[in-house]
Amino acid sequence: MIEIRRLSECTWKEAVGVWNEGFQDYFADVKMDADTFTARMAREGLSPELSIMAFHDGRPAGILLNGIRLIEGKRVAWNGGTAVVPRSRRLGVGRALVEAALGIYRENGVDIATLEAIRQNERAIALYKRMGYVVINRLGVYRCSGSLEELRDGGGTSYAVRRGMPQDAARLPFYRLTAPWQTHWPSLTGGESLIAFDPEGRAAGYALRRCAFDAEGNLAGITLFQCEADPERSDGEAVMRSLLGEALAPLHQPVKRTAINLPLSNRTAAELLERVGFSLELEQVHMILHCQESPGER
User: Fold this and answer.
1) Closest Cα partner for 1 from 61, 52, 51?
2) Domains along the chain?
3) Pairing of strands 59-71, 74-84
4) 64, 147, 150, 296: which has the fewest Cβ within 10 Å?
């Protein structure tokens, strides 16, 4: 028998335990201790009241984390991770979790449900498709640990880059509203925006990034969340190159740099990263479901 409970009704020890057990053989290492789990829930707007755990014959069997945000007047939900422990697979636990999550979305008036799944996880992707999700994009996780001196050459075009709060980028008319949940500005606590302006003072593009520091205050890593140019411009590549030169600086320093969930439809940014030494380490699919449509409309 499968029983679904809200995460708020379970202990944190149960939640962290089932998360780690469910992801122990995953394609990437996403195991967390209690402190890291708590920090991620807060940082990414995941709610214990909206998230759920599955129990099979009274034992923790799976978990699905949920968050809901208002984006441009639409209530958008995110599945921030679904895991089923090995002993409970092929028993319908995953389907029960997704069905329960969709019920929670309907109860909360969600317009669009979103998630990401690693491309090789064909079984999970097939389940999501059966439940009505469709793939809207491919996403890449890029990494580089060397220096990026090549980005010092801005391509001959001069742009003024203004730094600000992450939410400043969201005020631009070309801000990517369909960006993956983790790359939207509300997830960037401690991050910053970089907005490029052309010589006429018009906003030409933006980037979102966050820096990490070690215990001694030294720069340890840079994460790039978005890099976009106004699609109406003809100089998009030059704009993005200038933004990357600022967002990934200091360029001479060989620190760990990561571009997370970059939409691969943004070929200009992806090719620029590859050209200067980034490697594609992980590919995901970005999936959405329009919750207000009836099954016959999907």
Assistant:
1) 61
2) 2-110 (3.40.630.30), 141-284 (3.40.630.30)
3) antiparallel
4) 296
For 139-151, how does the pLDDT look when each residue is reduced to its tens digit (9 = 90+)? 999 999 988 988 8
Q: Which two three-digit tokens encode residue 277?
A: 């030494």
- Residue 77's Cβ-count burial label (10 Å; 0-12, 13-18, 19+) is buried
DSSP letters, the chain, are -EEEEEGGGS-HHHHHHHHHHHTTTSSS-----HHHHHHHHHHTT--TTT-EEEEETTEEEEEEEEEEEEETTEEEEEEEEEEE-GGGTTTTHHHHHHHHHHHHHHHTT-SEEEEEEETT-HHHHHHHHHTT-EEEEEEEEEEE-S--GGGG--TT---EEEEE-HHHHHTSTT--TTS-GGGSGGG-TT-EEEEEE-TTS-EEEEEEEEEEE-TTS-EEEEEEEEEEE-TT-S-HHHHHHHHHHHHT--TTS--EEEEEEEETT-HHHHHHHHHTT-EEEEEEEEEEEETTS-GGG-
- What are 80-112's pLDDT values in tens digits? 999 999 999 999 999 999 999 999 999 999 999
